[in-house]
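INFO batch 0412 | record 1 of 1 | parsing
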Amino acid sequence: MAKPKTPKPVVFDDPNYLTGVIDLLGVICYGEISAWERLAEDAKMAPDLKTKVEIGAMATAEFVHFTRLRDRLVEMGVDPYEAMSPFVTSFERFHKQTGPSDWLEGLVKAYVGDGLASDFYREIAAYLDANTRELVLGALSGTGDSEFVIEQVRGAIRENPSVGGRLALWGRRLMGEALSQAQTVVAEHDALSSVLVGSVDRPGMDLAGIGRMFARLTEAHTKRMEKLGLAA
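INFO prediction complete | emitting tokens
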């Protein structure tokens, strides 16, 4: 039997850009595995078996995305766990500050938090090479049945309208913490920020463009909250 071929390392001419791509794939990769872990924990708080299974399906989708990103890093000749390690502290800090108190808060966190992260990484993806951009967008293509989350949250509000106010405040808190984390991650990793701001050979964002990006993230968050029946 012929031995399987070892994937050829992916080569980039610009070493700084390569480092930025590794950082980006590393942070998204850890984000996916972290979301998988949190959703698996949230499933334990589900009120019934059907809800538990639906949350489990969302977790499974996250894990599939993780494996694709991990495999891409391996193809690049990079240890995926080393690529993820610089981002562990930031994500753990975020999750410590935003631990849900019940399964509804867990659902809102999964829906809103994943949406915010996806929007942010899509903004960066616009400045990537075609192959990396395709991989990133594919990994951000969804984490399961979002309609299930919308139905559950809206149904809970119909049964108890006071739940809406609590979850709206929760959504605002998630937004603030997520944006703060995004800014911190970019600021702490020069190569990652260089992907966003560009270079002589690659287009990027200026300060005004970055401001518009965060305005778009806020607008998308507002629309996402409206789908849940919550005020942003």
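INFO post-check: The CA atoms of residues 154 and 229 lie 6 Å apart.
INFO record closed
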